[in-house]
Write a structure and sequence with these properties.
Blueprint lengths: L3 H16 L6 H13 L4 H9 L10 H22 L4 H11 L4 H11 L9 H12 L1
Length: about 140
């Protein structure tokens, strides 16, 4: 289980991901707020993180990093559906590498993403991809 500081770091990272292209769109904001609630982060703390990001904390758990990568995939697809911007793929790839995930797995997820409705890779498929590379 991850602690509060790690949760805040995850959320801060997602906010940075959404702000990569300057502004957080309403649909991204609502998604991030939902993630904050899931992580048991108050709205006040969430709002604070938007203006005051905290340092990235590398998660020790490989499974937690995969879950975070999946959240970023969802966030990227929300953003791309909102504005059609394809630069999110490079951004997602770089965030995945920074999290310590294998570039083969990230590449495979990004490739397979195109074959799923709304480019959303189901969690079980994503886990299988990373499990294969991890073993």
């Amino acid at each position: 289980m991850i602690n509060r500081v790690e949760k805040l770091s995850l959320l801060s990272e997602m906010i940075a991901f959404a702000k990569y292209d300057k502004d957080i769109k309403n649909i991204e904001y609502n998604f991030l707020l939902g993630v904050a609630k899931q992580l048991e982060i108050s709205r006040e703390d969430f709002e604070y993180l938007i203006e005051h990001p905290i340092n990235y904390i590398h998660l020790k758990s490989h499974s937690e990093r995969i879950v975070q990568f999946h959240r970023l995939v969802l966030l990227m697809n929300i953003e791309n559906n909102a504005d059609g911007n394809a630069s999110g793929v490079i951004k997602l790839y770089n965030f995945g590498l920074r999290m310590g995930l294998s570039h083969e797995s990230i590449t495979k997820v990004l490739y397979l993403m195109e074959s799923f409705p709304n480019k959303i890779v189901p969690p079980d498929v994503l886990i299988d991809i990373f499990k294969t590379q991890y073993n």
